[in-house]
Design goal:
The protein is α+β, with helices and mostly antiparallel strands. 25% of the residues lie in helices and 16% in strands.
Length: 428
């Protein structure tokens, strides 16, 4: 592999307070039972990855017991301009949008406007009577009556196997969408039917989401875990709009971002802020190549509940600190303690097909079900999520620990290394 050397000024390696984190409480690591020396291993790992040509740059922030204890920024935000990453550099967080949408749904549940086990069709009637895709020649299985006639138009489209459809055994629910057990746009067969109702330029959630009710589910609801990368949480975003009477971007801003002091996070940065947004790179055959369509998830019209937010680490970490503090932060209570407990509980165990050993799934977040089986130093009960471009966050409620890492090149090893390097810095 060709090595890429990016020389970042040491002044960019910052601990504790930065300009962007100036409104957050800070502490020396030793004041909250962490080691300054050990936290430096995070920066060392990032520098190694940059030197190896695996990323252009990164920014990270760590909090414990409600205090920021570490912050670092290294590398460049663009390989051509060599503009350095700073704590104020903005990153496309992609699917780290999903936990925000999940919190929005939980807020609606607390207000009695939505129920966790409600069928989606209660809010979007087009979702009633959905069908399940069954591979041609495979046993029908499940319940719900005899299979319908094969659907010739679906067979083989987009590389999907030929299949027919049969009635779903039950309607998909809000909880199914939150936990990724709905089967909605969750595999090759279901995604091939989504292609037929593709979103058009200028459409909003209200225009597009009802059409998803005409697509086929990948499997019978609840029988397995399979990631619904866009459709599931986009549908939840539309339900937030229906329940609250507000467009999703306005709900996020007024009900979550403003109360938590998350000042720069948005679906579409201001003209003044776009120069702060880092470039996205794909690592292919050992080389970094710029992503030519990095804003496919962000929009000024279609607000994806599944992705699209752009943020700095210090703008995102108040969201994690709110969760770590059981729903309250900055003098504002977004969720009750029992609601956060429900959200971060294991609803999908690692025994269900599709989950990794020791890692279950909660309501919009992965949950460490057993840290020994999962091979992580973080506590059992830790939860969070990642973004496809390399961003990652976690909340360890046992240790009162929150970590946010922002990179613009996907690498799951980096995410796991970051978690362990944060955890190993705990001394008491």
């Amino acid at each position: 592999m060709k090595k890429l050397v990016i020389r970042a000024p040491l002044a960019l390696i910052l601990v504790a307070l930065s300009v962007s984190a100036a409104n957050l409480p800070t502490a020396k690591p030793e004041e909250v039972g962490m080691s300054t020396e050990r936290l430096q291993r995070i920066q060392q790992m990032i520098q190694r990855r940059i030197a190896a040509g695996e990323m252009s740059g990164a920014s990270a922030i760590v909090a414990r017991k409600g205090k920021i204890v570490y912050q670092t920024a290294a590398g460049v935000m663009d390989l051509e301009t060599k503009k350095p990453v700073t704590p104020d550099t903005m990153f496309r967080v992609a699917s780290m949008t999903k936990p925000v949408t999940s919190v929005a749904i939980m807020m609606m549940i607390e207000e009695g406007k939505v129920r966790l086990n409600d069928p989606v069709s209660r809010y979007i009637p087009e979702f009633k009577g959905m069908k399940v895709a069954v591979t041609t020649g495979a046993p029908a299985g499940g319940r719900g009556g005899a299979p319908a006639a094969p659907a010739p138009a679906a067979g083989g489209r987009g590389g999907a196997p030929s299949f027919y459809t049969m009635p779903a055994s039950r309607e998909i629910t809000i909880k199914d969408l939150l936990t990724h057990v709905s089967g909605l746009a969750s595999g090759t067969m279901s995604n091939s039917t989504v292609q037929a109702i593709a979103r058009k330029q200028g459409e909003k959630l209200a225009d597009y989401i009802p059409r998803l009710g005409s697509t086929a589910l990948e499997f019978q609801p609840g029988t397995r875990w399979a990631y619904s990368a866009q459709a599931g949480h986009d549908t939840l975003g539309r339900i937030v709009e229906i329940a609250s009477g507000m467009p999703l971007d306005q709900f996020f801003q007024t009900r979550i971002f403003d109360p938590l002091g998350m000042k720069d996070i948005s679906f579409w940065p201001s003209e003044a802020n776009w120069p702060r947004v880092a470039s996205v790179y794909n690592l292919t055959n050992g080389a970094l190549a710029k992503n030519n369509n990095p804003n496919s998830m962000s929009s000024q019209v279609y607000f994806m509940g599944s992705g699209g937010l752009i943020s700095t680490p210090s703008d995102y970490i108040p969201f994690g600190m709110m969760l770590a503090n059981w729903g309250t932060w900055n003098g504002k209570t977004l969720l009750g303690k029992k609601t956060v407990e429900m959200m971060s509980s294991v609803h999908v165990p690692d025994s269900l097909p599709g989950r990794a050993a020791g890692e279950g799934y909660g309501l919009g977040v992965r949950v460490v079900e057993d840290h020994a089986r999962n091979g992580t130093l973080l506590s059992t009960g830790t939860y969070g999520w990642s973004g496809v471009y390399g961003t990652h966050f976690f909340v360890d409620p046992v240790e009162g620990l929150v970590g946010v890492l922002m990179v613009q090149t996907s690498n799951q090893e980096v995410n796991r290394d970051f978690e362990n390097l944060v955890a190993q810095a705990i001394t008491q």
